[in-house]
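Researcher: Please predict.
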Amino acid sequence: MSTDSLDTFAVLQTAESIARQAGAILLQYYERPRQANHKSTSVDLVTEADTASEAFIVAALREAFPDHRVNGEEGGGYGPPPDQTPYHWWVDPLDGTTDFAHRFPVFAVVLALSDPDLNPILGVVYDPTRDECFKGIRGHGATLNGRPLHVTATRDLAEALVVTGFPYDRWTVEDNNTALFAHFVRRAQGVRCVGSAALDLCYVAMGRLDLFWEKKLNPWDVLAGALIVEEAGGRVTDFDGGRPAPVHLGERTLATNGLIHDEALAVFRLGDAAPLPGAQR
C-alpha cells in the first residue's frame, strides 16, 4: 500500500491543531487534585487526563482521517484493520504521566503517523506548559514553533548533557538501566531524567541535550521524536549502532547529535544490567 498520495503538510497541520487542543485539555486537569490509577506496576500510572486527552485525539483523528488506523496508548486500536490501510497513527495522549500526577511541568501530547511497517511519516510533540510544538516530516526537516531545528556540535561525551529514563519494571528486573546510568554519570558532563521520552528526543533535536538513551519504550513513545531528531541532523540507532525494524526501535533507543554516537556506543559495550539488591552473582 502506497503512501505517496498523502498531502503530508496538510496532515501535519491538522495533527498540530489536534495536539494543541489535547494540550489544552491536559492543562484543565493539571491543577486539579491528584487522581491517578496504577496500570502494570505501582510506578505505571494513568490519570483522568490521559483518558480524556486520548478520547479527544482519537475522535478528532477518526473524523479527519476516517481511512487511517489510530493506535492509542490507553485504549488500543481504532478504525480500519491494520492490513487494510497504509496509514497508522500512534498516540500518546500524555507522555510524562508521572510528572503530570506530581505537578512536575514536563509532559507532552505525542502524535506520529507511520506506514504499516512503522516507518514514521510525520510527527508532532506538543508541550502545553511551554507552548512548544515540535514537528517533523520525513525528508522535510523539523521545526519548533516554525523555527528550523538542528542538533548540537558537541564532539566529546565529557562535554555533553545527556538524558535517560527508567522502565516501569525497574524494581523487579536486573535489566533496568541503572548500570548504564552509572556508566554515563562517570563519562558525561551531566545526566538528566525528566520523565518524557518524546520531549527528551525533541530536546536532542533542538540542542538542549546532546544524547538520549532509554529501553523498553513503545511506538507512541519514540516514533515522533526519533523522526524529529533525524530530520534535525541527528542519529538514532539501537545500543549496538544498528537500525532495527521500527517496531523494535523502542526496545533500546539511542539518539545523539551524531558526533558523539560512536563514543556512546562504547559505553553500552560496558554492560547494561545491574544486580537487584541482595541478588547473587
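Model: Confidence is low (pLDDT under 50) at residues 38-44, 274-281.
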